[in-house]
Specification:
The protein contains 13 helices and 19 strands. It is 35% helix and 19% strand.
Amino acid sequence: MYIQRRNEYLKHVKTNSLSVFFSGHAPQKSNDQNYPFSVNRNFFYLTGIEQQDVCLLLIKGNKDAVSYLFIAENDPVKVLWDGAGLTFDEASEKAELELKHIINIKDLDHYIHNLLSTTRSAIFGHIDTFYLDLERQSEIALDTVGITYAHQLKALYPFLNIISNQMILAEQRMAKDAFEISETKKAINITEKGLNRIMKTLKPGLYEYQAEAEYNFVLNQHRVTTSFDTIAASGKNATVLHYVDNKDEIKDGTLVLFDLGVKYGNYCSDITRVFPANGKFSDRQKAVYEVVLNVNKKSIEWLKPGVTVDEFKEYGRQLLIEGAKKLGLIKEDSEIIKYYYHGLGHYLGLDVHDVGNYSAVIPEGALITVEPGLYIAEEGIGIRIEDDVYVTKEGPINLSADLIKEIADIEDFMKK
């Protein structure tokens, strides 16, 4: 699988080029504490290795393509404190990687220098292009390992053509294979167990963080973590899209919106469900909920390969406009922005908001969320219903279909 992924990547890069992927390093948090390590997703996608300070080098020469893995030797003292990392022999013996060339990461710079020198040009041809992950989330974001390395290379080799490989991998990762869908299903199954525990224990008088704790208890039992900060928003709090304080008391008669997920093998689930605190929807809550649920189901049915993300979003938006008018919330289409102010979905995978070419059509094999919502602050009602959908040529497959979302099913489950 990883060999196939690397070969597919190499089809899209120039001949006589190097591509370097860093696994990353946990940044310092304070004093002698670091943040938890999170592997670079492109590196993980191509290797399946989840370890700090590892580097993958791919060479595409005139006649051949070769993969090299650079890892650190295990320090005997560090092993006693933090445990052993992947050894050279272990790395070479991983059949699924087929990485024959394992080199000490201390030699990375020297090795690349040799590849860029004219004396090595007879082996792979004259290397004139270098691919790095140069993604930057914002203008104020700290330099990534890839960007830092690009600066170093440019200082040494000012005429080297340095190119970002981000979009190559973004487009490659859009279509999921069977293994990725299997891992995502495992994440969704644990999410379902967590949501069921929430429904079993939810009642007025609890605090939002207590409901969240019930979910975390299930995740801890399965030795997994959340794929993002859990949203447990009751009443008016649910009208704030990224409310994560989870600090308020859950009042009788309110709805509680849970937007949450699980990270399993680095693959993410992203689910939103809304439950009545006392186990029973009011008539008004039912009316709003049914509108959102209808849009959720129709949008899932509509999804197919070949449509654009913008077409998908507009389809759901028009349905929400129709529903909002029936609810008496709006009269003009333009007014929908007051009650619906986000997109209909996003790609899902190794990241919750996964990479992809959002200007291109949705490909066969894409995994995308469907999450319409209506947020009525003046009524203290915020409803979003989100599922994870696999897009196939035979039709959409809702991977989270078993997570109940019909009003009658929710009320019956909570009653029992």
